[in-house]
Write a structure and sequence with these properties.
171 residues; alpha+beta; 5-stranded antiparallel sheet; 4-stranded antiparallel sheet; 2 helices; 11 strands
Length: 171
Amino acid sequence: MLRPSEQWNWIYCSTKDRLLLDISDEAQFCSPFTSSQLACKPTQQPLSMAEAQAFWQIDDSLQQLEMPAAVRLELCLTALCAHYLQQQAHKSWYFQQGADCSAKPFELVMLRGLSGQYALVLSSETDCVTCLLLGDISTLSGKQLKRLQVIRVLRNRISPLKLDIPFRHTA
């Protein structure tokens, strides 16, 4: 797994119309976010210490789910991009009422429409949370929301994640 570095830089690429993270001369992460979704378009914005710390918190949360390291890395880097996204209206009507949980940033939660899906809380307000969808989900209206989409919902639409944690993770 890659380790965050002060050498990493956020940039907006107009050719690709994407937010990118320059990792090295040979590696670059291309986010799924276009200019219309961004609040600002960075040029050589170094990765901050807070972002590096968030990277490790996100990775730690995602380790609760069984997934390959490459997928976990993609989710970590995509979640870090949320800092550059525009604020959005909530999409609570797409989801069933949940348990009104008090999830904090970087915790995993469950959203339920016609299907259920894991989501990573990116930011938290008194009555809303902004989440990154970890997989596709079918909403109550039948609309498909795609993996890696960032959505904002009322807290009463999320439920805490309940996983059976293997004994090796509890010692």
